[in-house]
Amino acid sequence: MPDGARAPDGPQGTGAEPLLRVEDLRVDYRTAGGRVPAVRGVSFTLEAGSKLGVAGESGCGKSTVALALLRLLPKSARVGGSVLLEGEDVTAMRWGRLRAVRWAGASIVFQGAMHALNAVRRVGDQIAEPMLLHGTVPPGRTGARVGELLESVGLPRWRARSYPHELSGGQRQRVMIAMALACEPRLIIADEPTTALDVMVQAQILRLIDDLVAGSGIGLVMISHDLSVLADTCDRLAVMYAGRVVEEGPAAEVVAAARHPYAAALSAAFPRVGDPGSRMAPRGLPGDPPDPAALPEGCSFRPRCAVAEERCAATDPDLWSAGDGGRRAACVKVLEEAV
After folding, report:
1. Is 62 within 8 Å of 240 (Cβ atoms)?
2. Which pLDDT tens digit goes with each residue over 215-269?
3. At what angle do helices 169-181 and 199-216 cross, to 10 degrees?
4. Between the chain's N and C termini, which has fewer beta carbons within 10 Å?
5. Count of domains forming the chain
6. What CATH number is associated with residue 195?
7. Which GO molecular function terms does the record list (predicted)?
Protein backbone atom coordinates (compact mmCIF):
# COMPACT_ATOMS: atom_id res chain seq x y z
CA MET A 1 0.00 0.00 0.00
CA PRO A 2 1.42 3.43 -0.93
CA ASP A 3 2.57 6.07 1.51
CA GLY A 4 -0.29 7.98 3.07
CA ALA A 5 -2.82 5.20 2.45
CA ARG A 6 -3.16 4.20 6.10
CA ALA A 7 -4.76 6.27 8.78
CA PRO A 8 -2.61 7.01 11.86
CA ASP A 9 -2.52 4.35 14.56
CA GLY A 10 -4.39 5.08 17.78
CA PRO A 11 -5.76 8.41 18.94
CA GLN A 12 -4.09 11.35 17.14
CA GLY A 13 -1.43 8.98 15.82
CA THR A 14 0.02 8.17 19.24
CA GLY A 15 0.78 4.58 18.24
CA ALA A 16 -1.55 3.15 20.93
CA GLU A 17 -3.14 -0.15 19.91
CA PRO A 18 -6.70 0.47 18.66
CA LEU A 19 -9.65 -1.59 19.83
CA LEU A 20 -9.93 -3.26 16.42
CA ARG A 21 -7.41 -3.44 13.63
CA VAL A 22 -8.31 -5.27 10.42
CA GLU A 23 -5.36 -5.84 8.08
CA ASP A 24 -5.69 -7.09 4.49
CA LEU A 25 -8.82 -9.14 5.22
CA ARG A 26 -9.56 -11.53 2.37
CA VAL A 27 -12.49 -13.95 2.14
CA ASP A 28 -13.35 -16.27 -0.71
CA TYR A 29 -15.98 -18.98 -0.99
CA ARG A 30 -15.61 -22.48 -2.41
CA THR A 31 -18.18 -23.10 -5.16
CA ALA A 32 -18.71 -25.70 -7.86
CA GLY A 33 -16.98 -23.36 -10.30
CA GLY A 34 -13.97 -22.71 -8.04
CA ARG A 35 -13.04 -20.10 -5.45
CA VAL A 36 -14.99 -16.83 -5.60
CA PRO A 37 -13.53 -13.72 -3.89
CA ALA A 38 -16.06 -11.94 -1.67
CA VAL A 39 -13.68 -9.64 0.27
CA ARG A 40 -10.42 -8.45 -1.29
CA GLY A 41 -7.91 -6.84 1.03
CA VAL A 42 -10.04 -4.79 3.42
CA SER A 43 -8.15 -2.84 6.11
CA PHE A 44 -9.39 -0.41 8.77
CA THR A 45 -8.98 0.50 12.45
CA LEU A 46 -11.50 1.37 15.15
CA GLU A 47 -10.82 3.11 18.44
CA ALA A 48 -12.79 2.46 21.64
CA GLY A 49 -15.79 4.78 21.77
CA SER A 50 -15.76 5.30 17.99
CA LYS A 51 -18.33 4.29 15.37
CA LEU A 52 -17.37 3.04 11.91
CA GLY A 53 -19.99 2.66 9.19
CA VAL A 54 -19.53 0.23 6.30
CA ALA A 55 -21.73 0.96 3.28
CA GLY A 56 -22.33 -0.45 -0.17
CA GLU A 57 -24.84 -2.16 -2.42
CA SER A 58 -26.04 -5.70 -1.80
CA GLY A 59 -23.30 -8.16 -2.70
CA CYS A 60 -20.40 -5.78 -2.08
CA GLY A 61 -19.04 -7.91 0.78
CA LYS A 62 -19.97 -5.80 3.79
CA SER A 63 -21.90 -8.54 5.67
CA THR A 64 -19.09 -11.01 4.91
CA VAL A 65 -16.70 -8.57 6.60
CA ALA A 66 -19.02 -8.38 9.64
CA LEU A 67 -19.21 -12.17 9.99
CA ALA A 68 -15.48 -12.61 9.40
CA LEU A 69 -14.67 -10.36 12.38
CA LEU A 70 -15.98 -13.07 14.74
CA ARG A 71 -15.33 -16.09 12.49
CA LEU A 72 -19.02 -16.74 11.88
CA LEU A 73 -18.62 -17.61 8.19
CA PRO A 74 -19.64 -21.01 6.75
CA LYS A 75 -17.10 -23.78 6.23
CA SER A 76 -16.95 -23.00 2.52
CA ALA A 77 -15.21 -19.69 3.33
CA ARG A 78 -11.44 -19.29 3.36
CA VAL A 79 -10.13 -16.29 5.31
CA GLY A 80 -6.80 -14.49 5.01
CA GLY A 81 -5.29 -11.44 6.67
CA SER A 82 -5.70 -10.55 10.34
CA VAL A 83 -8.42 -9.27 12.68
CA LEU A 84 -6.75 -7.88 15.81
CA LEU A 85 -9.19 -7.35 18.68
CA GLU A 86 -7.31 -5.48 21.43
CA GLY A 87 -4.10 -6.81 19.89
CA GLU A 88 -5.19 -10.47 19.70
CA ASP A 89 -5.72 -12.05 16.27
CA VAL A 90 -9.22 -13.51 16.04
CA THR A 91 -8.31 -15.48 12.91
CA ALA A 92 -5.62 -17.41 14.82
CA MET A 93 -7.57 -18.12 18.03
CA ARG A 94 -8.19 -21.67 19.18
CA TRP A 95 -11.85 -22.64 19.49
CA GLY A 96 -11.95 -22.30 23.29
CA ARG A 97 -10.48 -18.82 23.20
CA LEU A 98 -12.82 -17.80 20.36
CA ARG A 99 -15.86 -18.88 22.40
CA ALA A 100 -14.61 -16.77 25.30
CA VAL A 101 -14.24 -13.71 23.04
CA ARG A 102 -17.66 -13.98 21.41
CA TRP A 103 -20.28 -12.04 23.40
CA ALA A 104 -17.78 -11.11 26.15
CA GLY A 105 -15.17 -9.36 23.98
CA ALA A 106 -17.24 -8.64 20.90
CA SER A 107 -20.86 -9.29 19.99
CA ILE A 108 -23.05 -8.95 16.92
CA VAL A 109 -26.56 -7.64 16.25
CA PHE A 110 -27.90 -9.52 13.25
CA GLN A 111 -30.34 -8.18 10.71
CA GLY A 112 -33.74 -9.85 10.92
CA ALA A 113 -34.17 -10.36 14.67
CA MET A 114 -37.08 -12.76 14.18
CA HIS A 115 -34.71 -15.19 12.46
CA ALA A 116 -31.87 -14.63 14.93
CA LEU A 117 -34.01 -15.24 18.03
CA ASN A 118 -35.22 -18.70 19.06
CA ALA A 119 -38.98 -18.69 18.45
CA VAL A 120 -39.78 -21.21 21.23
CA ARG A 121 -37.77 -19.63 24.07
CA ARG A 122 -38.68 -16.57 26.13
CA VAL A 123 -36.53 -13.57 25.29
CA GLY A 124 -35.34 -13.22 28.89
CA ASP A 125 -33.83 -16.71 28.78
CA GLN A 126 -32.09 -15.88 25.51
CA ILE A 127 -30.59 -12.69 26.94
CA ALA A 128 -29.44 -14.61 30.03
CA GLU A 129 -27.77 -17.41 28.04
CA PRO A 130 -24.50 -15.61 27.15
CA MET A 131 -24.17 -14.36 30.74
CA LEU A 132 -24.52 -17.90 32.10
CA LEU A 133 -22.18 -19.29 29.43
CA HIS A 134 -19.44 -16.79 30.23
CA GLY A 135 -20.09 -16.54 33.96
CA THR A 136 -20.21 -12.75 33.88
CA VAL A 137 -23.15 -12.60 36.33
CA PRO A 138 -23.84 -14.92 39.32
CA PRO A 139 -26.70 -17.34 38.47
CA GLY A 140 -28.89 -15.87 41.18
CA ARG A 141 -28.68 -12.39 39.68
CA THR A 142 -29.29 -13.13 36.00
CA GLY A 143 -32.99 -12.25 36.24
CA ALA A 144 -32.24 -8.83 37.68
CA ARG A 145 -29.53 -8.22 35.10
CA VAL A 146 -31.90 -9.20 32.26
CA GLY A 147 -34.40 -6.67 33.60
CA GLU A 148 -31.72 -3.97 33.71
CA LEU A 149 -30.72 -4.69 30.12
CA LEU A 150 -34.30 -4.57 28.89
CA GLU A 151 -34.82 -1.22 30.59
CA SER A 152 -31.57 0.09 29.08
CA VAL A 153 -32.99 -0.54 25.60
CA GLY A 154 -36.38 0.96 26.42
CA LEU A 155 -38.40 -2.17 27.20
CA PRO A 156 -40.19 -3.00 30.49
CA ARG A 157 -38.77 -5.77 32.65
CA TRP A 158 -41.87 -7.94 32.27
CA ARG A 159 -41.05 -8.36 28.56
CA ALA A 160 -38.49 -10.97 29.66
CA ARG A 161 -41.41 -13.43 29.82
CA SER A 162 -42.44 -12.75 26.20
CA TYR A 163 -41.77 -14.95 23.19
CA PRO A 164 -40.34 -13.33 20.02
CA HIS A 165 -43.65 -13.54 18.12
CA GLU A 166 -45.31 -11.47 20.86
CA LEU A 167 -43.04 -8.49 20.12
CA SER A 168 -43.05 -5.95 17.32
CA GLY A 169 -40.12 -5.71 14.91
CA GLY A 170 -38.63 -2.78 16.79
CA GLN A 171 -39.01 -4.54 20.14
CA ARG A 172 -37.30 -7.66 18.81
CA GLN A 173 -34.42 -5.54 17.55
CA ARG A 174 -34.13 -3.97 21.01
CA VAL A 175 -33.96 -7.48 22.51
CA MET A 176 -31.10 -8.29 20.11
CA ILE A 177 -29.25 -5.16 21.27
CA ALA A 178 -29.83 -6.10 24.92
CA MET A 179 -28.43 -9.57 24.20
CA ALA A 180 -25.39 -8.03 22.50
CA LEU A 181 -24.76 -5.91 25.61
CA ALA A 182 -25.30 -8.77 28.09
CA CYS A 183 -21.62 -9.53 28.72
CA GLU A 184 -20.45 -5.91 28.44
CA PRO A 185 -18.35 -6.40 25.28
CA ARG A 186 -15.80 -3.88 24.09
CA LEU A 187 -17.01 -4.12 20.47
CA ILE A 188 -20.46 -4.39 18.89
CA ILE A 189 -20.97 -5.29 15.24
CA ALA A 190 -24.40 -4.24 13.95
CA ASP A 191 -25.30 -5.82 10.60
CA GLU A 192 -28.20 -3.88 9.06
CA PRO A 193 -29.86 -3.40 12.49
CA THR A 194 -32.72 -1.28 11.13
CA THR A 195 -33.59 -3.27 8.00
CA ALA A 196 -37.37 -3.63 7.43
CA LEU A 197 -38.24 -1.25 10.30
CA ASP A 198 -40.45 1.78 9.69
CA VAL A 199 -38.73 5.16 9.79
CA MET A 200 -39.97 6.09 13.27
CA VAL A 201 -38.77 2.82 14.84
CA GLN A 202 -35.56 3.07 12.82
CA ALA A 203 -34.86 6.49 14.32
CA GLN A 204 -35.49 5.14 17.83
CA ILE A 205 -33.11 2.19 17.33
CA LEU A 206 -30.38 4.40 15.87
CA ARG A 207 -30.71 6.86 18.76
CA LEU A 208 -30.54 3.98 21.20
CA ILE A 209 -27.36 2.59 19.60
CA ASP A 210 -25.77 6.03 19.58
CA ASP A 211 -26.58 6.62 23.27
CA LEU A 212 -25.30 3.19 24.32
CA VAL A 213 -21.99 3.61 22.51
CA ALA A 214 -21.49 7.13 23.86
CA GLY A 215 -22.36 6.10 27.41
CA SER A 216 -20.20 2.98 27.65
CA GLY A 217 -17.20 3.79 25.47
CA ILE A 218 -17.52 0.64 23.37
CA GLY A 219 -16.63 0.50 19.68
CA LEU A 220 -19.26 0.05 16.98
CA VAL A 221 -18.99 -1.32 13.45
CA MET A 222 -22.30 -0.69 11.71
CA ILE A 223 -23.13 -2.27 8.35
CA SER A 224 -25.79 -0.74 6.10
CA HIS A 225 -26.66 -0.02 2.49
CA ASP A 226 -28.17 3.28 3.62
CA LEU A 227 -25.53 5.99 3.48
CA SER A 228 -27.78 8.56 5.16
CA VAL A 229 -28.26 6.32 8.22
CA LEU A 230 -24.52 5.82 8.59
CA ALA A 231 -23.79 9.51 8.12
CA ASP A 232 -26.11 10.35 11.03
CA THR A 233 -24.82 7.57 13.30
CA CYS A 234 -21.12 7.02 12.65
CA ASP A 235 -17.91 9.01 13.02
CA ARG A 236 -16.16 7.42 10.04
CA LEU A 237 -17.44 5.76 6.90
CA ALA A 238 -15.95 3.05 4.68
CA VAL A 239 -17.63 2.53 1.30
CA MET A 240 -17.23 -0.92 -0.25
CA TYR A 241 -17.55 -2.04 -3.87
CA ALA A 242 -16.85 -5.50 -5.29
CA GLY A 243 -15.23 -6.71 -2.07
CA ARG A 244 -12.94 -3.73 -1.53
CA VAL A 245 -13.04 -0.45 0.39
CA VAL A 246 -13.02 2.27 -2.27
CA GLU A 247 -13.33 5.28 0.04
CA GLU A 248 -12.88 5.93 3.75
CA GLY A 249 -12.98 9.06 5.87
CA PRO A 250 -15.06 11.17 8.27
CA ALA A 251 -18.68 10.15 7.61
CA ALA A 252 -20.11 13.63 7.05
CA GLU A 253 -17.30 14.55 4.63
CA VAL A 254 -17.59 11.35 2.60
CA VAL A 255 -21.35 11.85 2.17
CA ALA A 256 -21.09 15.58 1.42
CA ALA A 257 -18.07 15.48 -0.90
CA ALA A 258 -17.13 11.92 -1.88
CA ARG A 259 -13.84 11.53 -3.75
CA HIS A 260 -14.54 8.14 -5.37
CA PRO A 261 -17.15 8.11 -8.17
CA TYR A 262 -18.98 5.16 -6.60
CA ALA A 263 -19.24 6.80 -3.17
CA ALA A 264 -20.45 9.97 -4.90
CA ALA A 265 -23.12 8.00 -6.76
CA LEU A 266 -24.29 6.33 -3.54
CA SER A 267 -24.60 9.70 -1.83
CA ALA A 268 -26.47 11.22 -4.78
CA ALA A 269 -28.98 8.34 -4.79
CA PHE A 270 -30.62 9.63 -1.58
CA PRO A 271 -32.94 12.67 -1.61
CA ARG A 272 -31.60 15.62 0.39
CA VAL A 273 -33.74 17.73 2.72
CA GLY A 274 -34.10 21.20 1.24
CA ASP A 275 -33.05 20.11 -2.26
CA PRO A 276 -36.20 19.81 -4.44
CA GLY A 277 -34.16 18.56 -7.37
CA SER A 278 -32.86 15.51 -5.50
CA ARG A 279 -36.28 14.85 -3.98
CA MET A 280 -38.02 14.77 -7.35
CA ALA A 281 -35.30 12.95 -9.27
CA PRO A 282 -32.74 11.16 -7.09
CA ARG A 283 -29.90 9.85 -9.22
CA GLY A 284 -28.87 6.23 -9.42
CA LEU A 285 -26.28 4.06 -11.13
CA PRO A 286 -26.75 2.20 -14.40
CA GLY A 287 -26.06 -1.52 -14.47
CA ASP A 288 -25.34 -3.91 -11.62
CA PRO A 289 -22.34 -4.69 -9.41
CA PRO A 290 -19.94 -7.14 -11.09
CA ASP A 291 -20.06 -10.89 -10.56
CA PRO A 292 -17.30 -11.65 -8.00
CA ALA A 293 -16.38 -14.70 -10.07
CA ALA A 294 -15.80 -12.55 -13.19
CA LEU A 295 -14.45 -9.17 -12.12
CA PRO A 296 -13.55 -6.75 -14.93
CA GLU A 297 -9.95 -5.90 -15.70
CA GLY A 298 -8.50 -2.92 -13.89
CA CYS A 299 -10.82 -0.87 -11.69
CA SER A 300 -13.85 -3.01 -10.85
CA PHE A 301 -16.13 0.06 -10.94
CA ARG A 302 -14.99 1.08 -14.45
CA PRO A 303 -17.95 -0.43 -16.42
CA ARG A 304 -20.42 1.71 -14.42
CA CYS A 305 -18.27 4.81 -13.95
CA ALA A 306 -19.31 7.99 -15.77
CA VAL A 307 -15.78 9.44 -15.62
CA ALA A 308 -13.76 6.29 -16.45
CA GLU A 309 -10.71 6.67 -18.66
CA GLU A 310 -8.69 4.24 -20.75
CA ARG A 311 -6.07 3.90 -18.02
CA CYS A 312 -8.73 2.67 -15.59
CA ALA A 313 -8.75 -0.65 -17.46
CA ALA A 314 -5.06 -1.17 -16.69
CA THR A 315 -4.98 -0.86 -12.91
CA ASP A 316 -7.12 -1.50 -9.85
CA PRO A 317 -5.97 1.43 -7.70
CA ASP A 318 -5.02 1.19 -4.04
CA LEU A 319 -6.47 3.46 -1.39
CA TRP A 320 -4.60 6.74 -1.76
CA SER A 321 -4.54 9.66 0.64
CA ALA A 322 -7.38 12.00 -0.33
CA GLY A 323 -7.15 14.83 2.17
CA ASP A 324 -7.09 15.54 5.88
CA GLY A 325 -8.74 13.41 8.56
CA GLY A 326 -7.38 10.16 7.18
CA ARG A 327 -9.47 10.41 4.01
CA ARG A 328 -8.59 7.76 1.42
CA ALA A 329 -9.99 6.85 -1.99
CA ALA A 330 -9.16 4.19 -4.58
CA CYS A 331 -9.31 6.20 -7.78
CA VAL A 332 -6.58 7.19 -10.25
CA LYS A 333 -7.92 10.74 -10.27
CA VAL A 334 -7.22 11.04 -6.53
CA LEU A 335 -3.65 9.88 -7.08
CA GLU A 336 -3.30 12.34 -9.95
CA GLU A 337 -4.39 15.23 -7.71
CA ALA A 338 -1.96 14.18 -4.96
CA VAL A 339 1.11 14.18 -7.23
Report:
1. yes
2. 778 899 999 888 888 888 899 999 999 999 999 999 999 998 999 999 998 888 7
3. 10
4. C
5. 1
6. 3.40.50.300
7. ATP binding
